[in-house]
Write a structure and sequence with these properties.
The complex is a heterodimer of chains A (290) and B (265). Chain A has a single domain, classed as MetI-like (MetI-like fold, Orthogonal Bundle). In chain A, strands 2-3 form a two-stranded antiparallel ribbon. In chain A, 74% of the residues lie in helices and 4% in strands. Chain A is mainly α and 290 residues long. Chain B has two domains: 45 residues, no CATH class; 206 residues, MetI-like fold. Helices cover 78% and strands 1% of the residues of chain B. Chain B contains 13 helices and one strand. The longest helix of chain B is centred in the N-terminal third of the chain and has 34 residues. The radius of gyration of chain B is 22 Å and the shape is globular. The chains are: A mainly alpha (290), B mainly alpha (265).
C-alpha cells in the first residue's frame, strides 16, 4: 500500500516542529555557541575555536568516566536483555494472570528516578536495609558508601531491578504477536523448546528487541538521578558517570565552554552507538531469515 | 508449568521486596527505625503520612508535579496526534529525515540541555512555572508520542479514510468523530508513557523550578542533603510518589495489554 503524496501534510507536523524546535534546536544552538567561546560575563565573549574540545578530549577524568560508563551500560545490557526475555517466556499467555503481571512489571517504571535511589539506599544500608543487613549477617562486610565494589554491585542490582521489566514488557509484546500456527507447525515437526525459541520466537522478537536494546543503551548511558542519589558519584570517583561529571562541570563549576564541548561529544557518542546497535541488529536478522 | 509459575512468583516477590521495605519504613517513626531492626512494622503509625498531608512544603510538591505532568501529557498528545497522522498517511518532502530527527531528541543527554533551557526560559520569564517544566519535558515526550501513535495509526487501513472523505467528511470531523475512537487504545498507551516519563524525570524539573512549581522529587532530594534525615518521612514521601503511577497503570491496564500486543512502544 503506497502512501499518498502530499506536501500539505507539513501543516500537520507544524505544531510538533515548533514545539521541538523551541525545546531542542534553540538550546542546541546555544550549546554549540558556548562550545567555541570563552564567556567572562554578559557581553564579554571571545571566540576560542576548538580549544574547549581539545581540553575536554584530553581530560583524564572524562576518559575514566567514559570507560566507567561503557562498563556500566555493557553489564546492564548483558544482564537485562536475557533476563527480560526469560521472564517474558514464562509469563502466562491469557487469563487474569496477564493483568497482574503487567501491572506489577510496570510498577518500578513509574517510580521517579530519584525515589528509586532512595528506595535502594533504604534497602541496602547496612544498618536499616533488609539487603545490607542480610549480607552483613553472613559475615560479609557490605557498605555501598565505603567500598567502590559494593557501590557498583548496588548500582547494577538497582538498574536491573528498575529496568528489566521494560525489556520483559517489550519481549512479551513481541511474543504475543506470533501467530499460534507457528507453534503448531513447530510441534508437528517435533521441535525442541530451544529450537522453537531459536528459530521462531527470537527472530520474531527482533523488532521489539531492537527497541529494547536501543532504549536500554540510551537510558543507561544517560543515567543521572539514581547514582546521584545513591552514591553521589562516590566513593571517590568510582561511580561518577558521564552525566554526573557533566553536571558537576556545568552547574557546580560553571565552566560553560568545556561543559558545552563535553555535551556535544557526549551527544555524538550516544548517537553513534545507537546507530551502530541499530545497524547490527538489522543485519543479524537479515542473515537469519534468508 | 509448575516450575515456571514458581520462578515467576519468586521474581515478582523480588521485584516487590524493595518497595515493601520502603512501605515498612514509612509506617515507623525514625527513632523506631534506627532503634531496632524489624522485618515488619511492630507498632505501625501513620504519623509520617500525616506530616506530609498537613505540611504545605510537602504536599504542594505533589500538586506541582501533577500539574506539570498533566500539562505535558495534554501538549504532547495534542501536537503528536496530527503529526503522527501525517507520518502514517502521507509522503512529503523530508518526512523520513524529520521522523529520525525527532527520535534523536530522545537520545540527547538531559544534562546537555540544562544550561540552555535555564537561559531560554529566563528570557521568557518562565522560570519556576509549571509550563516551563511541561515544555522542557516535551523534548523527549513529543517524539515518543509521535513514534507510538504512528504505529497505532498505521495499523488502521487507509480505506477508512478514503471512504470517509468520499462521504463528504471534512478532515477535522473525520479525525475526531471517526478516527480517534479507532485508536483509543493507542491514545491510552501514549498518555501512559508521557505521564510516566514526565513523572519520573528529575533533572529538568529541579533545575527549572525554585519554590512555586517545585516537584515532590526535588523536595525529597533537599531533605536527603539536610543533616539528621528522617528515614520514615522520606520513605512515606517515596511511597506517595508511587501512588499516582499505580493509579494510572490500573486505569490503562487493558489498553496496555492491547498496546503491547501490537508490538509497538
Amino acid at each position: 500500500m503506497e502512501k499518498w503524496e502530499n506536501n500539505k501534510a507539513w501543516f500537520l507536523i507544524l505544531p510538533v516542529f515548533i514545539i521541538v524546535a523551541f525545546s531542542a534546536i534553540i538550546p542546541l544552538m546555544t550549546v554549540v555557541n558556548y562550545s567555541v567561546q570563552d564567556i567572562f560575563g554578559p557581553g564579554q565573549r571571545v571566540f576560542v575555536g576548538t580549544e574547549w574540545f581539545e581540553e575536554v578530549l584530553s581530560d583524564k577524568r572524562l576518559h575514566d568516566a567514559l570507560w566507567r560508563q561503557f562498563l556500566f551500560s555493557g553489564l546492564v545490557l548483558l544482564i537485562e536483555i536475557p533476563l527480560g526475555i526469560l521472564i517474558a517466556l514464562m509469563m502466562p499467555k491469557r487469563g487474569w494472570g496477564v493483568s497482574v503481571c503487567l501491572v506489577t512489571l510496570a510498577l518500578p517504571l513509574l517510580i521517579p528516578w530519584n525515589v528509586i535511589g532512595t528506595i535502594w539506599i533504604i534497602f541496602t544500608r547496612p544498618d536499616i536495609g533488609l539487603l545490607g543487613a542480610a549480607i552483613n549477617s553472613f559475615g560479609v562486610a557490605f557498605d555501598h558508601t565505603a567500598a567502590p565494589m559494593d557501590a557498583w554491585i548496588t548500582l547494577i542490582l538497582m538498574e536491573v531491578w528498575h529496568w528489566t521489566p521494560l525489556v520483559t514488557l517489550l519481549a512479551y509484546a513481541g511474543l504475543r504477536a506470533i501467530p499460534e500456527a507457528y507453534y503448531q507447525a513447530a510441534k508437528i515437526d517435533g521441535a525442541s523448546a530451544w529450537a522453537t525459541f531459536r528459530y521462531i520466537q527470537l527472530p520474531k522478537m527482533r523488532g521489539v528487541l531492537t527497541i529494547a536494546v536501543l532504549l536500554r543503551f540510551m537510558d543507561s548511558f544517560l543515567i543521572y538521578a539514581e547514582p546521584f542519589v545513591l552514591t553521589g558519584g562516590g566513593p571517590g570517583n568510582s561511580t561518577t558517570f558521564l552525566s554526573i561529571y557533566l553536571v558537576k562541570i556545568a552547574v557546580g563549576q560553571f565552566d560553560l565552554g568545556p561543559a558545552a564541548a563535553f555535551s556535544l561529544v557526549y551527544f555524538l557518542v550516544v548517537l553513534l552507538f545507537s546507530w551502530l546497535f541499530y545497524q547490527a541488529l538489522q543485519n543479524v536478522g537479515k542473515g537469519r531469515e534468508g | 508449568m509448575k516450575k515456571r509459575t514458581a520462578v515467576l512468583i519468586i521474581y515478582f516477590a523480588l521485584l516487590l521486596l524493595p518497595i515493601y521495605w520502603m512501605l515498612n519504613m514509612s509506617l515507623r517513626t525514625n527513632a523506631d527505625i534506627l532503634g531496632a531492626f524489624s522485618i515488619y512494622p511492630g507498632n505501625p503509625t501513620l504519623s509520617n503520612y500525616i506530616k506530609i498531608f498537613t505540611d504545605e512544603s510537602w504536599y504542594s510538591g505533589y500538586i506541582n508535579s501533577i500539574i506539570y505532568v498533566s500539562i505535558n501529557t495534554v501538549i504532547s498528545l495534542l501536537t503528536a496526534l496530527p503529526a503522527a497522522y501525517a507520518f502514517s498517511r502521507y509522503h512529503f518532502i523530508g518526512d523520513k529525515h524529520i521522523f529520525f530527527w525527532l527520535l534523536t531528541n530522545r537520545m540527547a543527554p538531559a544534562a546537555v540541555f540544562l544550561l540552555p533551557f535555564f537561559q531560554l526560559y529566563s528570557t521568557f520569564d518562565l522560570i519556576d512555572t509549571h509550563i516551563a517544566v511541561a515544555l522542557a519535558h516535551c523534548l523527549f515526550n513529543v517524539p515518543l508520542a509521535v513514534w507510538i501513535l504512528e504505529g497505532f495509526m498505521s495499523g488502521i487501513p487507509r480505506e477508512i479514510d478514503e471512504t470517509a472523505y468520499l462521504d463528504g467528511y471534512s478532515f477535522p470531523r473525520f479525525f475526531i468523530t471517526l478516527f480517534l475512537p479507532l485508536i483509543r487504545a493507542g491514545v491510552g498507551v501514549t498518555a501512559f508513557f508521557c505521564f510516566m516519563f514526565s513523572w519520573v524525570e528529575l533533572l529538568f524539573a529541579r533545575t527549572l523550578t525554585t519554590t512555586n512549581a517545585k516537584p515532590i522529587a526535588a523536595t525529597m532530594t533537599r531533605t536527603v542533603s539536610a543533616t539528621g534525615l528522617d528515614w520514615g518521612l522520606l520513605a512515606a514521601a517515596g511511597i506517595l510518589t508511587i501512588v499516582p503511577g499505580a493509579l494510572v497503570i490500573w486505569f490503562v491496564r487493558n489498553h496496555l495489554a492491547k498496546g503491547f500486543a501490537l508490538g509497538r512502544v
